[in-house]
């Protein structure tokens, strides 16, 4: 493969966590969303994430943070990632811990490191364009900004958070980069329509590119105890002490998303920039999104993930996910979601993504973790 | 068990055929509707049919007609039926052949026989009342009428055929029996509403009670070749020749429902009577009907046939039939039909019974008979 590196100091961090409850029973504790092929491409979301990033960094500068339970699967799917670049979390501690521990380890190896954090379970249909945007973001990050990538909205989505853009960063050098005024949580539909109309708002794709030192400095300002704990882990990384310290410190780390610990406070201080991008991004957060991407592949009104020959339908739209070798017959259903796995079957429709999550919570609470 | 026989010459014929395609994938070629327990009662429809009839006839005068493939299952479910009272059809030849061959065999044993034909796959929730009505029908049949049982409609059903009633048969002796003016096929909804309003129409439950000789005479008048062929089979029944003759004659028997070969022509000649009845009858022809009967048993808005503990639902109505040990989750669906079996899954809604049948035909035509 030909690499055209973004920068010799540029490192990618892939936090590979999160089950993706809204995709149950396809996604499971032992088969989380990032380990799945949701588009029938033959590649999992994690594999695709690695492949679209590695031309920017080379394989030696890709760092993965994941749970102990997924170590074997991650190593199997990403054989080119170095063992010393895989950080195994004893338990989930949200994105600040995952990303910053990696940034802290990388910063000790390379004080000039620029890190980019890229979720392991998103979809990008135009990876070359993605890399083009990240290259610009790396250049902006070199100026000291925490730089994010904002997706130009294609509709008034209420499933994504938004980024409100402000003034240009430096119109001469960076034609596209703008300051970020603020981050906005998933809005109500009328608000989302306003965002779409005003042209000032972008979708937040959860990517952050920054000098490792800048990222850690902002963390230190806003979450000093968390920053200190992360330093303790990073200080002994690669030494015989590493497991002892990690197991001591990790369980008490504050669980907080990087959006709250770093991105929002930094935005208030004018330290965040955004580069807009259009590269077919989706977080494929629910079965509607999965159906949409399968439909784009020309599957007709009923999208099918699995063996198409086993699915028969009559006047049906929506999606069938078939993981078993059974015949699945769907008759006269609109926007249906049928997920057929060995030990669990889900039947719902496209409007119920949030309730799937609630049902997963209910199953856990009622002692049926065996199917989660 | 205490028998209170309807008449010492009264015999019951149970034609046990028909897969029940609208109940696929629960009903199968090797597990047809009559062999299934559709109400969660612990008894199959065939067993229940036998049990509600046997007090009227005693076990020795119950005659079953079924396919070779179901011999073992029928004998297993009805151990009290005599081997000499089971006629095995080499192939399905519709109801005239099934019922009349049994009537012809019975008539040779008992020239004064009165036979009553009762479908094996219908449901009756008030069997004592059913027997009360049949007793009256037997008395009417003794007068030479082909006597049917008409169900007082509880709604403008378009799923059943109707019986149009005429004058009383003999108001002194039979307070309820009336002449049948004509039989009406499943009507359109507006016609059904008219039938419900006029009070002259009853549902056709497919039961016929008549002297065996009367039944066979009417057949001879209207379908002489079929009557002759049936006579050939009955003449040698119980002799060493029986299998040879049956296998020779059976394949060429005309396939015709008894409604057309006997009931309708006889009605035109004023030879058919009807006794109205209200005994919780249903032909449980589709999953809506199954759901209805499960719902009557207090299952809430989502009826469940199978292990209730494995079905979880959130704002769902309709029916789940679970034959596997999987968890079935149904979220936000109205009138849904989910049938979960080992090798086939059906997802549809209550309005699509007819399309299930079409899908079964499609599966057969496309070489997937393995799941039928």
Textual characterization of the structure:
Two copies of one chain form a homodimer. Chain A is an alpha/beta fold. Chain A folds into two domains: 10-282, Alpha-Beta Complex (Spore Coat Polysaccharide Biosynthesis Protein SpsA, Chain A), CATH 3.90.550.10; 287-371, no CATH class. The first copy, chain A, contains eleven helices and 17 strands. Chain A has helices at residues 45-57, 71-77, 94-109, 127-142, 189-198, 212-222, 224-235, 242-249, 258-268, 287-296, 353-365, and strands spanning 10-16, 62-67, 86-89, 114-117, 123-124, 146-151, 162-168, 178-184, 201-211, 272-277, 281-282, 302-305, 311-314, 318-322, 327-331, 336-340, 344-349. In chain A, strands 6-9-7-8-10 form a five-stranded mixed barrel, surrounded by four helices. In chain A, strands 12-14-16-17 form a four-stranded mixed sheet, with helices on one face. The radius of gyration of chain A is 21 Å and the shape is globular. The two termini of chain A are 38 Å apart. The model of chain A has no long low-confidence stretch (mean pLDDT 94). The A-B interface holds A 25, 312, 314-315, 326-333, 336, 338, 340-349, 351-352, 355-356, 358-359, 362-363, 368, 371 and B 25, 312, 314-315, 326-333, 336, 338, 340-349, 351-352, 355-356, 358-359, 362-363, 368, 371.
């Amino acid at each position: 493969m030909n690499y055209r590196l973004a920068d010799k100091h540029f490192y990618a961090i892939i936090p590979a966590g999160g089950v993706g409850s809204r995709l149950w029973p396809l996604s499971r504790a032992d088969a989380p969303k990032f380990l799945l092929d949701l588009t029938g491409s033959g590649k999992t979301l994690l594999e695709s994430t690695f492949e679209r990033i590695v031309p920017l960094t080379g394989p030696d500068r890709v760092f993965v943070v994941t749970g102990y339970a997924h170590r074997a699967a991650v190593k199997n799917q990403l054989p080119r990632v170095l063992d010393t670049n895989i950080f195994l979390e004893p338990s989930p501690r949200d994105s600040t811990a995952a990303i910053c521990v990696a940034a802290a380890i990388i910063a000790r190896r390379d004080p000039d490191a620029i890190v980019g954090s890229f979720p392991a379970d998103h979809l990008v249909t135009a990876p070359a364009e993605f890399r083009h945007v990240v290259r610009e973001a790396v250049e902006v990050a070199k100026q000291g900004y925490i730089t994010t990538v904002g997706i130009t909205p294609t509709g008034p989505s209420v499933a994504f958070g938004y980024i409100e853009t402000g003034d240009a960063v430096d119109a001469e050098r960076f034609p596209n980069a703008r300051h970020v005024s603020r981050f906005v949580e998933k809005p109500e539909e009328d608000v989302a329509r306003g965002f779409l109309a005003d042209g000032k708002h972008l979708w937040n794709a959860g990517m952050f590119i920054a000098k490792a030192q800048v990222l850690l400095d902002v963390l230190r300002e806003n979450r000093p105890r968390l920053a200190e704990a992360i330093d303790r882990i990073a200080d002994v990384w690669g030494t015989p002490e590493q497991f002892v310290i990690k197991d001591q410190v990790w369980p008490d780390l504050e669980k907080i998303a990087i959006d709250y610990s770093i991105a929002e406070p930094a935005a208030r201080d004018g330290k965040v920039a955004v580069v807009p991008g259009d590269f077919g991004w989706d977080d494929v957060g629910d079965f509607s999104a999965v159906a949409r991407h399968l439909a784009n592949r020309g599957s007709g009104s009923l999208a099918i993930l699995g063996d198409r020959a086993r699915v028969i339908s009559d006047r049906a739209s929506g999606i069938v996910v078939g993981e078993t070798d059974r015949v699945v017959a769907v008759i006269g259903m609109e926007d249906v979601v049928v997920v057929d796995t060995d030990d669990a079957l889900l039947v719902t429709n496209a409007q119920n993504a949030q309730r799937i999550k609630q049902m997963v919570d209910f199953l856990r609470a009622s002692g049926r973790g065996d199917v989660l």
